[in-house]
Design a protein that fits this description.
- The structure is a single chain.
- By secondary structure, this protein is an alpha/beta fold.
- It folds into 2 domains: 1-80, 2-Layer Sandwich (Signal recognition particle alu RNA binding heterodimer, srp9/1), CATH 3.30.720.120; 82-142, 2,3-Dihydroxybiphenyl 1,2-Dioxygenase, domain 1, CATH 3.10.180.
- The protein is 20% helix and 29% strand.
- The strands form 3 sheets. A 4-stranded mixed β-sheet has the order 1-4-3-2, with helices on one face. A 3-stranded mixed β-sheet has the order 5-9-8, with helices on one face. The protein has a two-stranded antiparallel ribbon with strand order 6-7.
- It holds the Pfam family Glyoxalase.
- InterPro entries: Glyas_Bleomycin-R_OHBP_Dase, Glyas_Fos-R_dOase_dom, GlyoxalaseI/FosfomycinResist, VOC_core.
- Keywords: Dioxygenase, Oxidoreductase.
- This is Dioxygenase.
């Protein structure tokens, strides 16, 4: 990649069961597991899921909180409330996600229209929770 525009590389979510969380994101968002076999074998501390070629979501076990020493107070970040993470999708992927969530009996919010985001007003958006209570917004623009 030669474009030097700032981008989000990864988001780290605290989860109680990284393997179950990986399965949830694979089945609902259609993400690809990253390092899942290595995590299950005890070779890496957490698995991830690939959102796109540039962005992953790390699924950090809450049991790792005591090892978070990169900054003062980092240990206390486990369970720290994040309002939500928003994923922008093409319209067909948005509809497919909504269908998979509803088919899996995952509660979703009502559909909103014209909510503001990084690319301006989104045509449609909705919210849902993962198994650990992390809130996600799904949206599409045009």
């Amino acid at each position: 990649m030669t474009d030097h525009t700032a981008r989000i590389d990864h988001v780290v979510l605290w989860v109680s069961d990284p393997i179950a969380s990986t399965e949830f994101y694979e089945k609902t968002l259609g993400t690809e597991p990253v390092r899942l076999a290595e995590f299950a074998a005890g070779q890496v501390p957490f698995p991830s899921v690939r959102l796109n070629e540039e962005t992953i979501i790390d699924l950090m076990p809450q049991t790792m909180a005591a090892r978070m020493k990169m900054l003062p107070g980092a240990v206390e970040s486990a369970g720290h409330p994040v309002n939500h993470v928003c994923v922008a999708l093409p319209a067909d992927a948005f509809d497919a996600l909504l269908g998979r969530l509803e088919g899996s009996a995952v509660p979703v919010s009502e559909i909103s229209h014209d909510s503001f985001g990084a690319r301006g007003p989104a045509r449609r958006s909705f919210y849902f929770r993962d198994p650990d209570g992390n809130v996600f917004e799904a949206r599409h623009y045009d």
